[in-house]
Automatic annotation (TrEMBL):
One term under GO cellular component: cytoplasm
Keyword Repeat assigned: yes
Chain spans, region Disordered: 221-256
Domain Disease resistance R13L4/SHOC-2-like LRR residues, every copy: 29-128
Protein name: LRC18 protein
Cited Pfam families: LRR_14
Chain intervals with Polar residues compositional bias: 237-248
Length: 256
């Protein structure tokens, strides 16, 4: 591979693209080019720019060109699991877009164009698994947004304008260095632990009651002094820990 050049990827022809069109249950036509090894946005699909859904996920795309503006009928755009570090300003012209998945890329805060806020019909926006350090406060103008994914970034603050979006129902901010999640509090024991509890004084007890109480106290102290021996510890050496079997599939799960 020549120095400074990325992978060439698979070349998509118009014939291949036409054969990749599917009709969804809702009647929309989806151009599904996911998992095709594409490294460069195929210009031939401009011939199919009237589709309502476009899936370019799980490829090797490093850039989305400004010709994306030709896809004015798009309502659903999936670009997750590529190599994108920025978006073109022209993405803001896709006024019919309701779903935009940008998860698992290399997007930085600078890579999010201000024009993203023009997607006023957007209901689902997934920005998880990227390199975002801040979220533009202008995302608070996406007032139709119902679901927002911000997980696995480097966020330390969620703007109030985003938190107060009127229709927002789900916002995933897991695995960010947010102050409120920086340190998990220890479980609070609501039961007050004390050494002794005196309900009556010894002088007020009869000899038999005093003897009974002292006997129970001695039994309690014996239990406190008991320590289990090595043979009392359960041995689970033959068991497999969940992480040991999940490690191989971890990356695949994160992509999903």
């Amino acid at each position: 591979m020549p120095k400074g050049k990325g992978p060439q990827g698979k070349r998509i022809t118009l014939k291949v693209a036409k054969n990749s069109i599917r009709v969804a249950f809702n009647g929309r036509r989806r151009l599904d080019l996911s998992k095709m090894g594409i490294a460069t946005f195929p210009k031939c699909i401009l011939e199919l720019a009237d589709v309502e859904e476009l899936d370019l996920s799980r490829n090797m795309l490093r850039k989305i060109p400004n010709i994306i503006e030709k896809f004015q009928n798009l309502m659903w755009l999936d670009l997750h699991s590529n190599q994108l570090d920025e978006l073109p300003a022209e993405i803001g012209t896709l006024k019919n877009l309701t779903y935009l998945n940008l998860c698992n890329n290399k997007l930085t805060t600078k890579g999010l164009p201000e024009e993203l806020t023009r997607l006023r019909n957007l209901r689902t926006l997934n920005l998880g698994l990227n390199c975002l350090e801040t979220i533009p406060t202008t995302l608070g103008t996406l007032r139709e947004l119902i679901e927002l994914g911000l997980f696995d970034n480097s966020l330390t603050l969620i703007p109030k304008s985003v938190k107060k979006l009127p229709k927002l129902e789900r916002m995933n901010v897991k695995r960010n260095p947010l102050p409120e999640f920086a340190k998990e509090d220890e479980p609070i024991d609501t039961v007050k632990r004390i050494e002794s509890l005196y309900l009556v004084e010894k002088k007020d007890l009869c000899s038999s009651c005093l003897e009974m109480c002292q006997g129970e106290r001695d039994e309690l102290h014996k239990l406190e002094d008991m320590t289990p021996g090595p043979s009392d510890k359960p041995d689970f050496s033959s068991l497999t820990t969940p992480n040991s079997t999940a490690m191989d599939n971890q990356e695949e799960w994160r992509i999903k």
